[in-house]
Design a protein that fits this description.
388 residues, alpha/beta, two-stranded antiparallel sheet, 44% helix, 10% strand, binds S-adenosylmethionine
Length: 388
């Protein structure tokens, strides 16, 4: 299973299992019955969309393209990215030295396993392919579906993993860790503690698909706030559960404030000294600016961005009235006007996601160092008494 998620090639046994599972999914008109009520998809049309992907995978792996075609498409993805070599060298130089060989092997062969098992992995993993329409100007032939910069060691916290099952080989260490997680999930599934309900739609129009009887304690929204207005996302919090917390991750805000990079460059020497003092690793300074970010106070710039993003996401009418007053409201005022409370991220009062990750102790994760997570709650005292 871990191989099917992460490895460019999978074993013969997993290949057969994968195809028979896909055939079973394709034959089913109702996933809820097939999975003992564990998994369901909101509508038959949405299930149809998923099925067309599964169908293409089955076709490509059994009757379609032969040879090392997924491997070749992955190579092409690397070649498309003209910054790939530089990024890769930065990455390899900034992770702990003992992991470099295994990370470099993964780049070379895409195999997510320990060395001794490499010979088992003989089949191309078709599930790493998908429609290329997002980057290929609307053409939608199946291709390697990840950008070159996507590496499998980013999604799980390196600091936690290394403390549980340290190994010099990153693929081996991650395989062990993820197998543990998977086994815990299976145990929960067997106890009927988890149910998955898949909705494939524009998140701004999700309401018609949400089961009305459900209340939501936690609403995580990935980095949707980089794509759509805060107001739209935050409106999803007005549920019938006064204790809900909605989390927004803000990842791309630095693109709007190029001054941040300039400020760091201006203070390069001072920040570089702090990096070396703290990490005892002078190589980190040479890789890129990410190492320095941790020692630069990003909060004032982020506050500017957040305030602008919140103002921008107000309605035309409100904006016109603000323009008349010639005064921009504070973050607190806007948040209160939305009937919400924002956990004080400056004082690091988040309780679900860390406000910011420390990057230099988890360089394997390939964070950009300026990610912020914000936690939103409804204002106490039910500010929306008529809005159940
Ligand atoms: C950077 S990705 C999130 C990454 C993902 N959480 C992960 O860990 O791999 C953000 C995704 O949100 C999607 N997106 C943007 N606007 C959306 C919308 N209105 N409804 C649903 N998805 C949207 C984008 O297409 C993009 O794939």
């Amino acid at each position: 299973m871990i191989w099917a998620w992460y490895s460019l090639r999978i074993s013969e046994t997993d290949f057969s299992l994968l195809n028979s599972a896909l055939e079973e999914l394709l034959a089913s008109s109702d996933l809820s019955t097939l999975t003992n009520d564990f998994l369901s998809v909101a509508t038959p049309d949405q299930l149809g969309d998923l099925k067309s992907v599964w169908q293409t995978w089955v076709h490509l792996s059994t009757q379609g393209v032969k040879g090392l075609w997924v491997t070749e498409r992955r190579q092409a993805a690397f070649q498309r990215d003209d910054k790939w070599e530089e990024r890769l060298n930065n990455y390899l130089n900034s992770i702990p030295q003992q992991h470099r060989q295994s990370a470099s092997d993964w780049v070379e062969n895409g195999l997510f396993t320990s060395k001794c098992k490499v010979s088992w992995l003989t089949r191309e993993n078709v599930t790493l392919t998908g429609s290329s329409f997002q980057w290929n100007k609307g053409k939608s032939d199946f291709d390697f579906s990840m950008e070159a910069k996507t590496i499998p060691f980013t999604g799980w916290d390196y600091n936690v993993i290394k403390n549980i099952c340290y190994n010099d080989s990153l693929p081996e260490m991650y395989c062990t860790y993820l197998s543990n997680i998977l086994n815990k999930c299976i145990a929960k599934l067997r106890r009927y503690q988890v149910k998955l309900y898949v909705i494939r739609c524009d998140c701004m129009a999700i309401e018609p698909f949400l089961p009305v009887e459900l209340k939501y304690d936690r609403i995580t929204t990935s980095n949707l706030s980089d794509y759509i207005s805060f107001t739209g996302i935050l409106a999803k919090l007005k549920t019938n559960n006064n204790h809900s917390v909605l989390v927004t991750e803000v990842i791309n805000w630095g693109n709007y404030l190029p001054d941040v990079r300039d400020e760091i460059k201006e203070n390069y020497t001072e920040l570089a000294e702090k990096v070396v003092q703290d990490t005892n690793n002078s190589l980190l300074v040479l890789t890129n600016l990410i190492s320095l970010l941790e020692y630069h106070n990003l909060v004032p710039d982020f506050q500017l961005y957040l305030r602008a993003a919140l103002v921008e996401s107000r309605s035309e009418e409100e904006l016109a009235s603000l323009a008349k007053k010639k005064r921009l409201p504070s973050i607190k005022t806007i948040v209160a006007a939305l009937g919400l409370e924002l956990r004080d991220y400056v004082r690091k009062e988040n309780t679900i996601f860390p406000t910011k990750w420390a990057v230099n102790c988890r360089r394997v994760n390939l964070l950009s160092g300026d990610e912020f997570s914000l936690e939103w709650k409804l204002l106490k005292g039910d500010p929306f008494p008529n809005n159940n």
